[in-house]
Amino acid sequence: MNMLSMPHVGVLPAGVLGTIGDVAGVTVGHCTLADGPIQTGVTVVRAHRDDPYRHKVPAAASVINGFGKSIGLVQVEELGVLETPIALTNTFGVAAVAQAQIRAAVASSPQIGREWSTVNPLVFECNDGYLNDIQALAVADQHYVAALDAATSRFERGSVGAGRGMSCFDLKGGMGSASRIVNVARQDFTVGALVLANFGRLPMLTIDGVPIGRELSARKQTSTQPTATKPEQGSIIMIVATDAPLDSRQLKRLSMRAAAGLARTGSVYGHGSGDIALAFSTAWTVPHEADFIATPPLLSDTRLDPLFHACADSVEQAIIDALWSATSVTGRDAHTRLSLREAAPDLEQLLKRHTT
């Protein structure tokens, strides 16, 4: 198949990599489980290479629709920092990954839970049960460790890691990423997004403003696709990173703008969809043992609009990237999700028809 170039959302430029890896220090690693009915995995996002418990980064989350089983959000909301890497997996893998995070933190800092307070593991999830035998509880400690060890600024997207068994708009979903560069107060800042896309129904699919899902859904459906009349279910996790100096309150505002990018792709945040966004800044850290915390000069709230714009664009682009990068997967009970480009071999013509 001719490799069609992915549309570039908006007018803001992307970074060199075009992923969340453009935010200096941020790395992503995957561990993929692909064996017959087991189609799942773990993805880990690291804000930096230092010990995350001893060198916390400011963060905040927005729960757009709370149909989810994540762990760790309550303390992030209260304290506004991350204490572990961010982990993504399937719904029933949350407990195993959280335990792995705790073990890794204690191994690095034996004072945790004794001389020091306990650690707050942070695990996000989506339900990959259509393709993956989620009841097998296949995710274990070693898969988190493998994903953590594999973290790099250059990483795969699509049907990998936590995204292996995910569906998006009744097509193959998974991991997607994007970045945007903005100039604020005469300085360039980067905003990067990583998404675990597992939401939507085909008629809703919109790519860069083109409602191609309507046309695709009108075509003959294969026996492996559910009917398009079912309500929106699934979930999406949106991780937003920036090198702009923001505090947790400002990051809360930034994370909410991920919803704008999500909506542009056709989502209405359905009843059964868990839609959660988390934003963090790499511009400064919070030392665990500090009496006083030195912060850099923070951007004024009146200068945040370019970052809001970059967040919305990068999330929308990351969702498109997840669809673009995904490969078709067959899993549990011969359930199959076709990739966007396999389901729509005339995708280039469809997009051109609406843009010319």
TrEMBL record:
GO terms for molecular function: aminopeptidase activity. This is D-aminopeptidase. InterPro entries: ArgJ-like_dom_sf (IPR016117), Peptidase_S58_DmpA (IPR005321). Transmembrane segments: none annotated. Belongs to the peptidase S58 family. It comes from Paraburkholderia largidicola. PANTHER family: BLR5678 PROTEIN, D-AMINOPEPTIDASE. Keywords: Aminopeptidase, Hydrolase, Protease.
